[in-house]
Amino acid sequence: MASIVAIIGSSNSGKTTLIEKLIPELKSRGYRVATVKHAHHGVILDEPGKDSWRHIQAGSEATALISQDRLMLIKPVTPDITLDEISQLFGEDSDIILAEGFKLDTAAKIEVHRRESGPPLKDIEKLVAIVTDEPLETEIRQISLEDIRGLADFIEEGFIRPGEDRLSLYINNKSVSLKDFPVAIFINILMGMAASLRGVGKVSNLKLFLRKKD
């Protein structure tokens, strides 16, 4: 599973602006970046009366809107959905997931702080750095708001794992942490089985979904 870093901060602290600058810097280093936005206020993605809205109202578990160059997935979720659960939708197509918001999630967090926005947030679990425009009295790592390369270095060194085989295991929709040894066993077995199938060719990625009957 791709690593997840949540960018948090007070309202109007510049979270979106920071992510906008961080994405091209990480992509210039060859990484695939995905993002998640947490909207506290209701956002209508499928307007009442529209076809997608009618599909959901009829009981569809999910619906996808597809245009010539875009795909939007609409899936009803519970208010307490976690970033770990959301990351399942991305699969292994990204190297890092940047989430805007989610300050109560268990993911690692980087706070954006501006002097005019008031004091830093308090009692944030797994806060690994503060991107700030003023020095703060804290032992947490501080990075200048203007130092996008330095922030990208911090994320790259601490959270991105390039050049390694990655395998994600979800059981009952919950992520299961695997150590190196079982990961190697899973990969060897799956790759061996896939390679033995006629017409498969070289395997660069493999997706396997299992849903047992109740």
Structural summary, described in words:
By secondary structure, this protein is α/β, with parallel strands linked by helices. The protein has helices spanning 15-27, 51-57, 83-90, 148-159, 180-195; strands spanning 3-9, 33-37, 63-66, 71-74, 96-100, 108-113, 127-132, 141-144, 170-171, 174-175. The chain has five helices and ten strands. Helix 1 packs across helix 4 (148-159). The protein starts with a strand and ends in a 19-residue tail after the last helix.
Provide the descriptors you would attach to this structure in a database record.
214 residues; alpha/beta; 6-stranded parallel β-sheet; two-stranded antiparallel ribbon; 5 helices; 21% strand
Architecture blueprint of SSEs:
Elements: E1 3-9, H1 15-27, E2 33-37, H2 51-57, E3 63-66, E4 71-74, H3 83-90, E5 96-100, E6 108-113, E7 127-132, E8 141-144, H4 148-159, E9 170-171, E10 174-175, H5 180-195
Say how many strands there are. Answer: 10
Helix content: 25-40%
User: Which stretches of 5+ consecutive residues score pLDDT under 50?
Assistant: none
Cα distance spanning the termini: 27 Å
What string, H for helix and E for strand, traces the elements in order? Answer: EHEHEEHEEEEHEEH
Q: Which range does the strand content fall in?
A: 15-25%
Shape: globular
Radius of gyration: 20 Å
Count of alpha/pi helices: 5
User: pLDDT average, as an integer?
Assistant: 87
Query: How are the strands of the biggest sheet laid out side by side?
Result: 2-5-1-6-7-8
